[in-house]
Write a structure and sequence with these properties.
The chain is built from four helices and seven strands; from the N terminus they run H-E-E-E-H-H-E-H-E-E-E.
Length: 149
């Protein structure tokens, strides 16, 4: 049963076009696009530099509206204006190691995952990760290999 669930989750992630990995000390996400593969990596040091937040006791450090504006600014800066907002989620950071899990540090760290869809037919998606301190996580881009003539 575990194998079936693992396979099902893997298929879902591949269909969605996003692959996330959690390793000791970082959170990594990949997205294959027409430009190449974008990779976002958020290390534990960066994670713990963001404000803690619990909905029961505090106002959220970064509003949804502000996060979406920061995402839009990032798209404009990278000449991706043709992408429109499709989906946005407020997510907790995955635990980056056992010590963080046992002390609950990672559970109080959140970020926005914002998905933009190209307005051109079937041209894909772009993700923007916005941290609670207002930082947009800058991905690295690995271009597609050059086509052979």
């Amino acid at each position: 049963m575990k194998t079936f669930i693992t396979i099902l989750c893997s298929i879902f992630l591949l269909i969605e076009g996003r692959v996330c990995a959690q390793t000791t000390g970082s959170y990594t996400s990949h997205l294959q696009t027409e430009r190449g593969t974008y990779t976002w990596d958020i290390g534990s040091d960066r994670l713990y530099a963001t404000p803690e937040w619990t909905s029961e006791t505090n106002a959220i450090p970064l509003s949804f509206d502000k996060a979406c504006q920061l995402g839009r600014d990032w798209l404009t800066k990278h000449d991706l204006r043709r992408y429109g907002l499709d989906e946005a989620r407020l997510l907790s950071f995955p635990a980056v190691n056992i010590a963080a899990m046992s002390h609950g540090k990672a559970k109080r760290r959140f970020y926005y995952w914002i998905m933009y869809r190209s307005e051109a037919f079937d041209a894909g998606f772009m993700y923007v990760y916005v941290l609670m301190d207002g930082t947009v996580v800058e991905p690295t881009l690995t271009p597609l290999p050059a086509k052979k003539p």
